[in-house]
Amino acid sequence: MASLDARSISAWFGEHKVLDRVSLTMPAGKVTALIGPSGCGKSTFLRILNRMHELVPSASLAGKVLLDGRDLYSADRRITDARRQVGMVFQKPNPFPAMSIYDNVVAGLKLTGTRVSRRERDDLVEETLTKAGLWKEVRDRLRQPGGALSGGQQQRLCIARSLAVRPRVLLMDEPCSALDPTSTRRIEETIAELVHEVTIVIVTHNMQQAARVSDLCAFFLASQGTPGVIVEHGPTAAMFDHPQDPRTSDYVHGRFG
Ligand SMILES: Nc1ncnc2c1ncn2[C@@H]1O[C@H](COP(=O)(O)OP(=O)(O)OP(=O)(O)O)[C@@H](O)[C@H]1O
């Protein structure tokens, strides 16, 4: 488990500036929710936290991201190491569809060059599927393809795959937006259990979900063509019950966005 500290992050796509000096501390062992209307830069900010932003050819950034005080972007840190320590779960479940459930879970080990014995692999598959709340449903069909699972199960498989490389932070970009209410509940329960061992940062458009799952909230806003900024952040209860800024109040109460 580690804290993430974003300091004065600005981001561009080409000439287009989409974030302006955004700072946010995401404490270890807590769930931090990033909320705000579409296009205000939440996903871009999230992708900067595990060095995925730089995959876009036109993308650039300024500022610092510290993982437990160490610069994620320092020249002596490999990108693969940054992405292993800060994992990501996406909006749309993206298991390798033809690959077995078992192989999906351990797929990240190959990418990160981690060598483990067969026995250790078996244990890891059981452990991470259990943590992702999927073990009981799939224990008897680990050799079946990941693509044969339901959407909600696929998303939990993706969570297990992320956990298998033992990240210290897990980023989740609207992980439930493609799921039905029951599957959404399962993922939310999983988040509540996982936070005891991995720091979580989640982007969500669902205010009830932010209120249910997060300890802390940051409200992003990009007003009329200006880059995104954080208007207000703090403990989730305070953000919902006594927001300091009227724009936060309007947003969390569904008056815009
Ligand atoms: N690959 C890209 N190339 C160019 N511009 C991009 C790219 N990705 C995002 N943008 C722009 O950056 C800005 C912020 O987008 P971003 O996806 O981070 O916002 P968001 O708050 O996550 O939105 P949403 O809630 O709709 O997902 C938008 O103006 C968007 O058009």
Automatic annotation (TrEMBL):
Coiled coil: none
GO molecular-function terms, A-Z: ATP binding
Keywords: ATP-binding, Nucleotide-binding, Translocase, Transport
Record domain ABC transporter: where: 4-252
Source species, domain of life: Bacteria
Keyword Translocase part of the UniProt annotation: yes
Pfam families noted in UniProt: ABC_tran
InterPro entries, per the entry: AAA+_ATPase, ABC_transporter-like_ATP-bd, ABC_transporter-like_CS, P-loop_NTPase, PstB-like
UniProt xrefs under PANTHER family: ABC TRANSPORTER I FAMILY MEMBER 17
Name assigned to this protein: Phosphate ABC transporter ATP-binding protein
